């Protein structure tokens, strides 16, 4: 019987602190917005809502991180973390380079699927592409909200 105990779950603590920091940054960003909505709740209120949700998620991680655990905490899968980082970086990079929402979201899906263990890039690219096109059409055409445009979006 293993009698060693671990006082803190460090990965959960890091995630909790990171979520709280992102919540603070999001709330600060919302406080600097000068956009006012003519109808509905608007971007400022939505940003505050996202900040509140992130803060709640971060705070929920803290008791888990500080609870005594029997046995060893599983090691973080840094390869999966790297794939998720690549997914987010690809989305940001594609949009910043003018590639648009569809391509960026397709890569986001493909790399995130890889982080969860999938290895069929072609199928994941197709699935991500279909989902991204549907989301783009929903937001852009049905809801009349503009998403970052690139060459693919101009075809639709």
Compact summary:
Helices cover 69% and strands 3% of the residues.
Descriptive account of the structure:
- The chain has 156 residues and is mostly helical.
- The chain has two domains: 75 residues, no CATH class; 80 residues, no CATH class.
- The protein has six helices and two strands.
- A two-stranded antiparallel ribbon has the order 1-2.
- The longest helix has 25 residues.
- The radius of gyration is 20 Å and the shape is flat.
Name some characteristics of this structure.
mainly alpha; flat; 3% strand; two-stranded antiparallel sheet; 156 residues
The end-to-end distance, rounded to whole angstroms, is 62 Å
Enumerate the spans where pLDDT stays under 50 for 5 or more consecutive residues.
1-7
Fraction of helical residues: 55-70%
How many β-strand runs?
2
What letter string, H or E per element, gives the SSE order? EHHEHHHH
């Amino acid at each position: 019987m293993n009698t060693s105990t671990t006082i803190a779950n460090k990965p959960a603590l890091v995630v909790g602190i990171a979520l709280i920091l992102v919540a603070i940054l999001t709330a600060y960003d919302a406080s600097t917005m000068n956009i006012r909505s003519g109808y509905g709740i608007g971007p400022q209120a939505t940003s505050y809502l996202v900040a509140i949700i992130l803060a709640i998620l971060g705070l929920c991680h803290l008791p888990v991180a500080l609870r005594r655990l029997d046995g060893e905490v599983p090691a973080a899968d840094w390869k999966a973390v790297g794939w998720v980082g690549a997914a987010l970086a690809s989305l940001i990079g594609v949009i910043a380079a003018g590639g648009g929402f569809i391509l960026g979201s397709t890569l986001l899906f493909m790399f995130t699927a890889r982080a969860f263990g999938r290895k069929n890039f072609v199928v994941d690219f197709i699935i991500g592409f279909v989902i991204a096109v549907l989301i783009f059409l929903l937001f852009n055409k049905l809801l009349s909200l503009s998403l970052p445009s690139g060459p693919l979006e101009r075809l639709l």
